[in-house]
Give the backbone structure.
Amino acid sequence: MYASDGKGAAVRETVWGGCTRRALDTKSAEADRGAWVRGCLDGVSNAPQNPPTATVTRRSQDPGLLNGFRAWANDNNARNAATRTTELTTAQLTRTDYDIELTTTYTPAAQRQAGELAKAFVAWWDGDHGTDGVGRNVLILASDGTRLTASRL
């Protein structure tokens, strides 16, 4: 069951991926999705409950990843969406899972444009791009930090 491949790997991917997806869908987890994922994983693995004493989600900017996306967007008819992106942040949820957060110049009223940016980013994303772990979701944020949309990677 705990082997790195086979049925155990599929079960783990379903459970871990499900935990990260539920954290994304739960509005109460927005401030610290990593803590929510950790609680979910502890619950499904019968691990001892050790509530975190500090923020679990670790965010770090990744300008190299943003530049890679922009370069791809310039060659793939997504330049407009990419130029509206001001910052790319990796939000590490667990040791191996993270989300990508794109901060944009969009306002909260720009839902359609945010959706187009998310589609372009997902089309570009083909793996970890040098980041250790598994990228789960891309979140498009308005200029004021409000979430406009999210898509699975």
In short: The mean pLDDT is 82. The helical segments are 6-25, 33-44, 63-75, 79-83, 111-124. The radius of gyration is 16 Å.
